[in-house]
Design a protein that fits this description.
By secondary structure, this protein is an all-alpha fold. Among the domains are: 1-106, Alpha Horseshoe (Serine Threonine Protein Phosphatase 5, Tetratricopeptide repeat), CATH 1.25.40; 278-336, no CATH class. The chain is 49% helix and 0% strand. The protein has 18 helices and no strands. Helix 3 (75-81) packs antiparallel against helix 4 and helix 9 runs parallel beside helix 11. It is elongated, with a radius of gyration of 30 Å. The termini are far apart. The relative contact order is 0.05. Keywords: ANK repeat, Repeat. One of its GO terms (biological process) is positive regulation of protein catabolic process. Pfam families: Ank (PF00023), Ank_2 (PF12796).
Length: 349
Amino acid sequence: MDPPQQVQCLVARKSCGYRECPATQPGEARSSRALTFAAIKGRLSVAKKAVEAGASLDCVAEVTPQRAKFAYRTPLHLAIHGDHPEVAAYLIECGARTSRNFTRIQDKEPAIFSAIEAKSLHLTELMLNNEHFYTEAKNYSEVTIIQKAVEHGSFPIVNHLLNLIEKPESRYTFSTRGALKRALMRSPSLEIVTRLTQSERVDVYSPSPGNEWPSSYTPLEIACQRGYLDIVKLLLKKEKFAGSSLSLSRLLNLAADNDHDDVAEYLLQQDVKWQLSAQIIGKVKSLACKMRNRDLFTLIKTSSGMIACSTDYWIDPARGLDWRNLQGLVYLLRERFQSFLAGPNIYTH
């Protein structure tokens, strides 16, 4: 057996005699492995010495049974997720000088996402000030920076990002697409949702392209479906919702089908004037006459332009109008105009 190699160790600062020690290997491999060790353990002095010795800043940790969870991760990623901000900040500074690519090798997500996942505003700011990190994140198509911050529930980072893009003549132009809906699909923070709705750069009203859930739903519809009463109240206060083509019956159905009675009750209390089309009013009048329900007929006749509900969910023109469709309408009218609908005959037909 060969005698142990006596190589000066960058980590222990002594000749330990262990031939397989990562920090005692010759050349770049030696310094790069030492840098990986420093990032995992948070040893700033070792990180500096390893970089000075020529460590590769975008090296990745090797796959070993003992350290499988560190495999394929760069030193910067390891330092951020190991909660070693001093080492991470130092590596970011090194990257700013050398234009090194710290992108995580395995999943190719931008390095700034590591700082966002760790909810570190300081490291996020450092990376945004670096043109390489900023461009890398801005050009990433699958998830935007703001979506990532919203997903991980970090209000300081969300607020900082919105402040950057809202400044006049700002150089920051990253997208806000889907940010509000991404927030609602998690356990939403009212603080984050409020901040998003205050920004003119965030689309509060429209569904995303596509026909599948949740892309085909507006943020308000998602809030009703999930039962977020405070957020429903917040969104309904937005001026653009008043007089829009939103269907109260659809919102009510989303809330009721998911047993969110508090949301349904709040929707029924609103004073927004939801209009009925002339065609629907005519059909309801005709059916009311056939069913001999004078109260319903009188209500429709006298309130044709002011009924505070829409029936487009229950009354489907393709299948006609029958008493089952009308139950939803009667439910809404009974809640809003209790003095009119006295007879139960429409339910027992």
